[in-house]
């Protein structure tokens, strides 16, 4: 599962193969907007063969399905919106939920060692292979932190490629795991995604329920009560009456993996048992996949809130590596919105978007290249869904752009970097959807002058901001101000002025994004660059401009004293021009990538904003600036065009920023 991104809904091909199942729909206009998005994405990706999408959000009056393309690429059979598919690893959420239902019934606890609940045969098998089953807990299975080596490896895929009709048993796959290699690690030492964990989990379900795991899952997860009439385990259960035929699912890829394997798979040509006993196994349609997700996270399956919350358990590993996997779900961030769900091998995804209270499922029938399509659908439809659920008024002014959300709970004011505009800030900082879904209005300022602002300019800017709030009827109770690069300096200076003068719009918090908050240090690093004989004229253009700017504004003999008067902070003499911010929320964002600066700008780390920000933050914390947070990121800095650059808005996690704004 990549980057935190998985899930959603979509697509369409020409109108001749577009099919819709609308149970409860938003207005016609909104349906047309969804359809337009689907049309364009499918048209751009016909190699997907077929796509099915469903949005389930009863509280918002939406239960909407769409299909596009073909269920069989050989016969060009039209794909139906309610056609079932194999959802593969999406089953892991079902298995995890079934385990938690057993805990809700008092039959086990996820803190239990697995040896307490496995069959004697399986216990002996894994104990003889060196696993300490008294130390592996159920939660370790569900979070893939058990340290058990998996049977799904290159050998496994190579065997299936040559023997697609082989009928597997769970015992055979468990045995294969014990001979596949040494343990991956000790319990809770590392995260390693492994289907074997979930095969053991389904055995535990059988042991505690005294029923076949597929029957127990059906009963524990309340299929009948939830209306899941088209969800089953093929070959283990009879296909439900009136359920459509399974769509064909494909994997066409060359030179895959370290052995450069070639795949030309059609799911119809493989015995489903290769992925049937808990790592995968369920077949369902996208509507029921989304319904299950919605019901689960709305407490309709696991009634006990404390038990349900356990599915979000972050089992931290001793190797210190951060992961986004919980117990059978991933905690992802889609357009900055918290999203909980899972993906599957064949190209299925489902996520529940918390702020929208909507579950979105998607199936792309061609596995190869699925993530590009899923991400495109995901981002575009989440944005549109947010607009529909949280209507936002867009106000365009020569000095600013305002995105005012209905019933706004907070306002975030953003200042651009040098010479940039509100429009360019929007392009570089993808925050509008995140903010709207959290009922936060966004004010993008066009103010982009100078490396600093003097007292007169600060007063004028404060008056302008007060007028903007007054004319647009923005609430003054919860305001945060921030900026990137020199925009961060403006944010600090302005916030300090508003606090000092006890303005009605004094912000609750201020943040900077890789800003040159010590202007004297910026001047000195520019001089250092100018004196470096290894730098060419193109590279020297910016430092020469900066040095000339300072020297023209101030006399060279008294630069330190003069710069100190306008710089937010000055390390040289540990001086600050923004003392009124000491007891307010502050965040300093930076990405200290010394290698990038050396390779791309021939600059040593001591000359970067990141180095200065680190030093100033340390000094301020020593002086009891207790509400200051230094947030350092790694490999997050990219411009909107995809270019790597640590001096970028993208180092800010929009979801966490909005949470901070709302605090």
What does this 3D model show about the protein?
This protein is α+β, with helices and mostly antiparallel strands. It has 3 domains: 86-386, 3-Layer(aba) Sandwich (Beta-lactamase); 392-517 and 575-662, Rossmann fold; 519-566, no CATH class. 36% of the residues lie in helices and 18% in strands. The protein has 22 helices and 22 strands. Strands 1, 2, 3, 4, 9, 10, 11 and 12 form an 8-stranded antiparallel β-sheet that branches. A hairpin with a 2-residue loop joins strand 9 (330-334) and strand 10. The longest helix has 20 residues, at 370-389. It is elongated and about 85 Å long. The two termini are 31 Å apart. Residues 1-25 have low confidence and may be disordered.
Features:
663 residues, 22 strands, Rossmann fold, 22 helices, alpha+beta, disordered N terminus, eight-stranded antiparallel sheet, 36% helix, Beta-lactamase, eight-stranded mixed sheet, 3 domains, single chain
Overall form: elongated
Sheet having the most strands: 8 strands, antiparallel
Helix content: 25-40%
Mean pLDDT: 93
How many domain modules?
3
Number of strands: 22
Q: What integer value in Å does the Rg equal?
A: 28 Å
Low-confidence stretches: 1-25
CATH homologous superfamily descriptor of the largest domain: DD-peptidase/beta-lactamase superfamily
The CATH topology annotation of the largest domain reads as: Beta-lactamase
Number of helices: 22
How far apart are the first and last residues' alpha carbons, in Å?
31 Å
Our estimate of the beta-strand percent is: 15-25%
Helices and strands: which structural class?
alpha+beta
